[in-house]
Amino acid sequence: MKFFDDALGWMNRLCTPRVSSLDALRSTVLVPNSKLRELSRRMASCIEDGLGKDTHARATVKCFQTYVQDMPTGLERGTYLALDLGGSNFRVLKGELGINKYFYMEQETYSCSQDLMTGSGEHLFDHIAECLKKFIDAQGLNDGAEGTPPAKSKSKNRSLPVGFTFSFPMSQRSVDSGVLTRWTKGFTCDGVVDNDVVELLRRSIAKHAGLSVRICAILNDTVGTLMACAWKDPKTKLGLIVGTGSNCCYVEKVDAIGLYVGDPDKEQMIINLEWGSFGDNGELEGFLTKYDQEVDANSVNPRQQLFEKMVSGMYLGEIFRLLLVDMAKANLIFDGRIPEALRRRRGITTDVISNVERDPPGSYGNARECLKKFGIEATDRDLEVIRNVAECVSKRSARMVAAGLVAILNRIDEPEITIGVDGSVYRHHPHYHNILVETINELLENKKKINVILSEDGSGRGAAVVAAAVCKSNR
Ligand code: GLC
């Protein structure tokens, strides 16, 4: 079967004609609104499956329950620790929530090397515990009593409350437990899939005598993003990340969650869609190009996270490179020569796309400088074509993300909805926000007011807000 699939993939690649003009490139890569509406419908049906009692187990878009059910009131107070693991960096933060939406944060970033990302799970969690220990020592937080509100700070339990932002797919049974269902974004550590991540972290923390912390919540980065934004704007119903990976969460009524077994008095819960895996069961047929197939085939997780691979930062640079190679082969750039950097897999990075598009039309200063760093010399004519190629890649991403959002927005019966967004692609690309907003408004079925706003450091601030909300409800 595998052989058959591989052969089919090969045939497919060989049969897809090479793109030999800019128009051909645009029509291969960009999709019209009619097709985006179809994408939205497919996403909506996947969400139904993810929420359904009998369909959840085989659903492509998992719609995990997060057990985050209370939206922030803005009255959350105290000092909380946050851990943030989800990309090439790992962070430990101390966040203080105060009156009048006061938030103060101190943080330390530790690199998460390739060895850690692909080594043993135990090694990864030991590293996290060590960083946490170092941070607590450096901050002089060992005497405890942080986080808990004044009345409680006199109690004997002086362990520090921690919110753990763990940005991978996990199936949750409570707000302080989560079983990893698969790794994404290049992580492959063994011994973690099918295990409770909080338990693994607790074991590593227990190796440090005197490290007294209490992990009171584990959350996805999209959930942190939503909560950080909702802390300021109660109309926030969605959290979106377009960074190394891509994912979205939203506030759903418990009646619509087939497997809900929680508190009957609660009315809503944040659902972590894990939409990066949309397409893994054929839902992206008609959208995937030979470039996407190549990126997927060369990844550490082939046939998984196909939507993510079309829209997120970990992959956009590689799609861009493959397109440029075809443009060079068609003699549209570099006099038909393929520069060394473009011959190598992942030879250029996603930030090149933002840099190339940052120049005002007709000028190429940024683009030229940025490509030089990769040893690529380009003429104005080359740069004009390269800009067009970059636009195709980023525009497709923003438009497909918009189609995904519309599938959710159509479910929410509110006249005005705020979407909190974070992630390097959204943050750094000069036009991503505008394309996203424009496309959402073009695709929405029933007109409503949609605010798309940058959520400042959802993974850190959001984790503090969730930890505060959980501590409050446990009081
Ligand atoms: C990947 C992860 C998901 C995360 C997203 C953005 O898709 O699976 O949990 O939210 O990246 O970081």
Primary descriptors:
18% strand, globular, disordered N terminus, binds alpha-D-glucopyranose
Overview of the structural elements:
The structure is a single chain. Helix 3 crosses helix 14 (380-409) and helix 7 (221-230) packs across helix 17 (458-474). The model is unreliable at 1-16 and 144-157 (pLDDT under 50). This protein has a domain at 78-221 and 456-474: ATPase, nucleotide binding domain (Nucleotidyltransferase, domain 5), CATH 3.30.420. The chain is globular, with a radius of gyration of 23 Å. The protein has helices at 2-15, 22-29, 33-51, 114-118, 121-139, 197-206, 221-230, 290-297, 306-311, 313-329, 340-343, 351-358, 365-372, 380-409, 424-428, 432-443, 458-474; strands spanning 64-65, 78-85, 89-98, 102-111, 160-166, 170-174, 177-180, 213-219, 236-242, 246-253, 268-272, 416-422, 449-454. The chain contains 17 helices and 13 strands. By secondary structure, it is α/β, with parallel strands linked by helices. Helices cover 42% and strands 18% of the residues. Strands 1-11-10-9-12-13 form a six-stranded mixed beta sheet, sandwiched between helices. Strands 4-3-2-5-8 form a five-stranded mixed beta sheet. A two-stranded antiparallel ribbon has the order 6-7. Strand 6 and strand 7 form a beta hairpin. Residues 86, 167-169, 184-185, 220-222, 241, 243, 245-247, 274, 276, 308 line the site of alpha-D-glucopyranose (GLC).
